[in-house]
Amino acid sequence: MTPLTSGTAGALNGRVRVPGDKSMSHRALILGSLAIGRSHIRGLLEGDDVLRTAAAMRALGATLARGSDGAWSIDGVGIGGLAEPEEMLDLGNSGTGARLLMGLVAAHDITAFFTGDASLRRRPMARVAEPLSRMGARIVAREGARLPLAVIGAAAPLPIEYRLPVPSAQVKSAVLLAGLGAPGATTVIEPLATRDHSERMLRHFGAAVTVAAEAGEARRITLQGQPELRAADLTVPGDPSSAAFPMVAALLMPGSQVVIESVGVNPLRTGLFDTLRDMGADLAFTNERVEGGEPIADIAVRATRLSGVEVPAERAPRLIDEYPILAVAAAFARGRTVMHGLAELRVKESDRLGAIAQGLAACGVKLAVSGDMLAIEGADAPPAGGAAIATRLDHRIAMAFLVLGMAARQPTRIDDSETIGTSFPGFVALMNGLGAKIAPVAP
């Protein structure tokens, strides 16, 4: 464990680039490994979560190598060409990697064993196991379909039509990946639109994917199975979930002006940006363009006094990973912020809703939790801070409370910073380069 402390900082200034999008990095490795030919991936996030997926794809028979220029080359094996791994696939802390790879293996006539760290072994996999079982795979697991588990792939996978019980891009993607190996059309119906990186990237590699509107905000995503995916080059944009931390820090520190370059601004990932604008934030997209089918922009941020708002439940799928840092922003806002529809936070890397509430309360913030709702009472003065935060093996909790410590009246300490590397290697150096004061705890 590596504890850190974050103390009061002055204005933050500079131009930075955050690591590549984690969701897209996982998918690029997986789809590149299924494509015929050699793909080149630039901007790949090289955090532990993504490197675990890379190792798993090697174990499944693909050839992946990182070049001296930082670009990755992938020689794919084609749909149906995966090899049975000799060792257990250890996905560390990565729920995305585990769920997507379960879908991938489900449509191959092989058996693979999955495990992960203590946090991942507590996370529910039944939501993925259920539709994959309908497609002909067998999942052998302990109660709740939790890791470690075995996926025994179907020799003849079946296409299905599956309505997601809750909005989940991971479950949707797992079913679509399994659908690659099934004849005919596999359809996923989602009640609310979730991030669509899988749909966009499948098209980029040559799959036929259609998206149609259903009643209300539901979407019907249909994939034609057994395509021949073609190798394709791809540049991964900066992760908006990582950009959220320097962005909110700049908003909270008077006099700050920060530009975050080349960030993905996919409309299904911009829930935080929309919410911060509702709170009065001075942030603007500049240099907007499209690369590899994904919208990208530089984000210019100026310090702003925020105001409390109501955050509707239907925004949750576009905001799910950013609630910890949004909660920190709300603690500094004038007035009350109420966030609805947070049930999914209970089953992330930690019980994020509980971790947010416990950490904010320890820092002197008034709040209330009721069911899937979190209400935070902002005040005219910054929160006291001064607390020791239990991060619960959760990288986003760790980074969010380091940002809080920068603007609170007293420094804030986190008990473990090692998990930050799963999504944001170089976080401390980047933030300190802007003017933060994050340092190891003195022995």
Descriptive account of the structure:
The structure is a single chain. Strand 10, helix 6 and strand 11 form a beta-alpha-beta unit. Helix 1 packs parallel to helix 7 (197-204). The two termini are 13 Å apart. This protein is an alpha/beta fold and 443 residues long. It has helices at 22-34, 48-59, 95-106, 118-121, 126-134, 169-179, 197-204, 240-252, 271-278, 323-332, 352-362, 395-407, 427-434, and strands spanning 4-7, 13-16, 38-42, 63-66, 72-75, 89-90, 111-115, 138-142, 146-152, 161-163, 185-190, 209-213, 219-224, 234-235, 257-264, 282-291, 294-302, 310-311, 336-339, 366-370, 373-377, 388-389, 412-414, 437-440.
Topology:
Layout: E1 4-7, E2 13-16, H1 22-34, E3 38-42, H2 48-59, E4 63-66, E5 72-75, E6 89-90, H3 95-106, E7 111-115, H4 118-121, H5 126-134, E8 138-142, E9 146-152, E10 161-163, H6 169-179, E11 185-190, H7 197-204, E12 209-213, E13 219-224, E14 234-235, H8 240-252, E15 257-264, H9 271-278, E16 282-291, E17 294-302, E18 310-311, H10 323-332, E19 336-339, H11 352-362, E20 366-370, E21 373-377, E22 388-389, H12 395-407, E23 412-414, H13 427-434, E24 437-440
Helix pairs in contact: 1-2, 1-3, 1-7, 2-3, 3-5, 3-6, 5-6, 8-10, 8-12, 10-11, 10-12
In short:
The protein is of the alpha/beta class. The chain has 13 helices and 24 strands.
